[in-house]
Amino acid sequence: MLAASSMAPVFAAVEKQFLADHPCVTKVSFSYGSSATLAAQIVNGSPADVFISASEKTMNTVSDSGRTINTTLFARNSGEIMVNMSSRFIDKITSIASLSESSKAGIKVGLCVTTAPCGALADSILEKSSITRNAITDTESPSVEDLVSKIEMGELDAGIVYHSDCVNAQKNKRAVCVPIPLDANATNSYYVAALNTRNVTQQFIDFVSSTTFTGSLQSKFGFLAP
Length: 226
Hints:
Layout: E1 2-4, H1 8-21, E2 31-33, H2 35-43, E3 50-53, H3 56-64, E4 70-84, E5 109-112, H4 117-128, H5 133-136, E6 139-141, H6 144-152, E7 158-162, H7 163-171, E8 175-179, E9 187-194, H8 199-209, H9 211-220
Parallel strand pairs: 1-2, 1-3, 5-6, 5-7
Antiparallel strand pairs: 3-9, 4-7, 4-8, 4-9
Helix pairs in contact: 2-3
């Protein structure tokens, strides 16, 4: 299974349930990364049963290549500001505008690269706030998983990540998060696609599309309804 990195905490938590519900399946192997990177790997022939993308654009890349059997929208996500718990700016980061060097001298802020869905989401949020990427960004990460790690480890003071990442980080007391107002926020869509007609592939597609799984995404992991 090739999946957007923002889904890693979810599948780590529910994999046992999938295996329990499907006793003939003994193991599920996941490979996480930026949806754009994974899509390119699939188009170039990388073997996989399922692709889970964090944007319509990256899913379309795979669909347009003829690799998908079917595609289902199952969730959405929104943006949020994640702040390192030991950052000296922790009490001063209150908005997107407060991430700029001009307002907080010495602050280190990261974003996902523009080609990654988390980067495209950040760009939409910045545009609504009339702030350019260059005005706040010290470093760019290839995936949201990489960006979250850099913030949690203190390499960065803050960054724009997914709300689901913040739910997970705050639950485990690894970071604090600052909500982005609805009128300044943006969302992206999550799709799951079968890449072959194997029975186990369809079983996993059905699992991800089920109301039990999508309900858990919303109640426990901070995702939005599709």
